[in-house]
Amino acid sequence: MSFLKLKIGYRTLKTAIGTAISIFLAQQLDLMYPASAGIITILCIQVTVKQSFRTAWNRIMASFLGLGIGMALFYFLGYSPLAILLAILLFLPLAVRFGIQEGFVSSMVVLMHLYSSERMDLPLLLNEAGLLVIGVGVALLVNLYMPSLDKDLRAMQKQVEQLFRQILREFSYYLRHGESEWDGKEMIEAPGLLEKAIRLASRDIDNRLGRRDDSYYQYFVMREKQFELLERMMPIVSSLDTQVPQSHRIADFLEQISASVHPGNTAYRFIDQLRQMREEIKESELPRTREEFETRASLFYLLREIENYLFIKHELGKNSDDKKTAAVNKAKPGA
């Protein structure tokens, strides 16, 4: 009875319903080859709304191209396998040239109808046009409904932020104690999660017609850039095993940033605080030993990378005019 536990996805359900509707409509209109309308619907239903429209357009253009090539060859060579061979050999390079090669199957369906019928009269051409209109039209209508991805994107957002918090906390701990038992698993998990989140956010954009809400996409791209800086910070932090007062100050600062990792964006507050701290460190007592001097230099380099990390978030908030992001930004400071 395990088959009862099978999960049917939205795309599977839409494909099944759309195929049945297309065949039903073609039969009601008494079209020849009604199953072909269902095949065209199956081919046109894509992962996103925009992909469906693009695919539909390409298949229509490819079908007309295939129809034109086929009619010309059938006229001169008759309805023979040689004509089919030449039609395919001519069609594919042209389809690739025009970027409509994904319409190969649907165009061949139309071509085979002409070949099977051995005629090219107006009723048959109208029949093929009707199959295309029904197949493509039903696919577009069915695919207009896309389940919201907001829940998944928010969940990924929380996962990314949790990883960033932990990474920053571990950096802070090492600066404070000069040692750590951290295994660095968050540094391994973050790239894959960010890549997956960016793909999902891009898909979410392609599901929206007429309005472009790319706040999640911009957010995850921003986090990806920040993670590159965290990767650059890691060897700097791990090299700072000499305890100096400045290390503890930066550790406290990283702890504050860690506690403020969320979608909100007032990173400029942390940037101002960092610059003030850097000036105070410059004015502090000079290093007495070479080891202290090297540690001080590494700390300044670390501060520069932290500033870059914060600046990336600050730029996102400054450049974004998305209402959802703006509303969140007003809530509380974030890094």
From TrEMBL:
It is a multi-pass membrane protein. InterPro entries: ArAE_1, ArAE_1_C, ArAE_1_C_sf, UPF0421. This is Aromatic acid exporter family protein. It holds the Pfam family ArAE_1. Keywords: Cell membrane, Membrane, Transmembrane, Transmembrane helix. The keyword Membrane applies. It comes from Brevibacillus agri. Its main location: membrane. Coiled coil: none annotated. It is found in: Cell membrane. The chain crosses the membrane at residues 31-49, 56-77, 83-112, 124-146. GO terms for cellular component: plasma membrane. Residues 150-313 form the Putative aromatic acid exporter C-terminal domain.
